[in-house]
Amino acid sequence: MSISPSGALTLMVQGTASDAGKTTLVAGLCRVFARRGLHVAPFKPQNMALNSAVTCDGGEIGRAQALQAVACGVPAHTDFNPVLLKPQSDTSAQVIVQGRALSVVEARDFFGPGARHYKQRVMTAVLDSFERLRQAYQRILVEGAGSPAEINLRDNDIANMGFAEAADCPVILVADIDKGGVFAQLYGTLMLLSEAERARVKGLVINRFRGDIRLLENGLTMIEQLTGKPVLGVVPYLDNLVLDAEDAIVHHSAASSDERPLRVVVLVTPRISNHTDFDALRLHPRVDLALVHAGSNPAQCPAADLVIIPGSKAVRDDLATLMANGWKAWLDRHLRYGGKLIGICGGYQMLGELIDDPQGLESAAGRSAGLGYLPMTTTLEAGKQLRNVTGTLSLAGASCAVHGYEIHCGRSQPLVEHRAPLTLAADGAAPQPDGMVSHDNQVLGTYLHGLFDSVEACNALLAWAGLEHSRQAVALDALREASLNRLADTLEQYLNMDLLEQCMQPNSQQGNHHEP
């Protein structure tokens, strides 16, 4: 499949390494162009992440592309991230194509000798989604994955230069100076590309700079001479941006208030998913949040008022990790002393009596005894529940609005009459009860991701967990918007936007920057 020459102007941001700043740079540029009145879309051909989001067309994409859609001011769509890989083990991942889970594939099948068949299968979908976007938008900002210099993966690449060449897309390369060796990052990456790939790179960006720019200027001149590529800008280090993380987890936050904080522990399982659920808690001035690995010794875990078991891509395997490391006894003691416990999505399933996976959807077929804190059983079924929802949270005799999304392939059945803490509805459908609260009011489970994102719901849940006299939950959406605008302001100040626009023009209209 080939891409037509008409349609939106495009630019691909590739990085010298993972976490060089590709996601943030694309989000910022999306906001820059959107503020200029242009119809902009983000695009990432292939993403590997356990943080995902539900789209307006009822599919699933990487969380980073949902953030970039917010930056563009458009609803998230499956075409923004046509291939999403969600790791289920160290060697396998669920393959989601255009929003729908297709299969579980071993790493050797999409990175090893057999990858050619995989590439042929999914590249058609990638280019199909890209072409639809190119005909519907004026600008497309494309994000690469990892580094284009992974020479062992070049032949079957669809995420970096493999896509750029198939789509005839110009590229800029971003490097993180905060990690050190920034000129080696840029020069080494370019030298590992083929001649045709190097020619596709139109400019360089240095990210996360701290200090006196005058000390860097001679290096900028030298790297331009060595590579024949212009430096489009040096972006300063930006503290305290509130942007959804693609993968990285912030492991601890300390409360900033002088009042007694609510101590919250999140158990980080090996296949944790959608840890962005806890961003609002990390930013709360009266929450002391600790993310504790499930593989660690529970005796070393700090005391907590509230423990949260998050979502998981491999629920039975993550449950086995908790059991094997003694967390069941620790949780029993936590509840005996009056602590509260919340399970979200896969964590909710773990709270029940039994998890049954008869088809082997997440691991080997079989069943596992749950933690036994809620009277229910869960059966994993093919076909994910994917929906954005709004509804009501009812706790302690009070109710408030709540919103979020569901991504799960299990159905949980109560064994006795129970109290559901939530009623949720999607797309005009009738509201349905969701979740369960234990009879002693100490354990709560729900399938809702984004449980803490709305101010009122966060306040209600923290009050239920024991935080007194607090109405200090953060307005996460407002903080995200402010961060996107601050990021866009910074890029407009420190990037040569005229030259960047020139990089997006067809080759015949670009300036003459040649390799030496």
Structure description:
The protein is an alpha/beta fold and 516 residues long. It has 2 domains: 9-241 and 481-506, 3-Layer(aba) Sandwich (Rossmann fold), CATH 3.40.50; 258-471, Rossmann fold, CATH 3.40.50.880. It contains 15 helices and 27 strands. The chain has a 7-stranded mixed beta sheet with strand order 13-16-14-17-19-27-26, with helices on both faces. Strands 2-9-1-10-11-12 form a 6-stranded parallel beta sheet, with helices on both faces. Helix 8 links the parallel strand 11 and strand 12. The chain is globular, with a radius of gyration of 24 Å. The relative contact order is 0.12.
The major pleated sheet works out as: 7 strands, mixed
Strand order of the main beta sheet, please?
13-16-14-17-19-27-26
Number of helices: 15
Report the top-level CATH class of the largest domain.
Alpha Beta
Rg for CA atoms: 24 Å
Class by alpha and beta content: alpha/beta
Distance between the termini: 34 Å
From the spread of the alpha carbons, the general shape counts as globular
> How many DSSP E strands?
27
Q: TL;DR of this structure?
A:
This protein is 29% helix and 29% strand. The chain has 516 residues and is of the alpha/beta class.
Furnish the topology, listing elements before pairings.
Layout: E1 9-15, H1 22-35, E2 40-43, E3 46-48, E4 52-54, E5 60-62, H2 63-72, E6 83-87, E7 92-97, E8 100-106, H3 107-111, H4 115-136, E9 139-143, H5 161-167, E10 171-176, H6 182-191, H7 195-200, E11 201-209, H8 217-227, E12 231-236, E13 252-253, E14 262-268, E15 272-273, H9 279-282, E16 287-293, E17 306-309, E18 311-312, H10 315-324, H11 327-336, E19 340-344, H12 346-350, E20 354-357, E21 366-369, E22 376-395, E23 398-414, E24 422-425, E25 432-434, E26 436-437, E27 443-446, H13 455-465, H14 476-494, H15 497-504
Parallel strand pairs: 1-9, 1-10, 2-9, 3-6, 10-11, 11-12, 14-16, 14-17, 17-19, 19-27, 20-22
Antiparallel strand pairs: 4-5, 6-7, 7-8, 13-16, 15-18, 20-21, 22-23, 22-24, 24-25, 26-27
Helix pairs in contact: 1-2, 1-14, 6-8
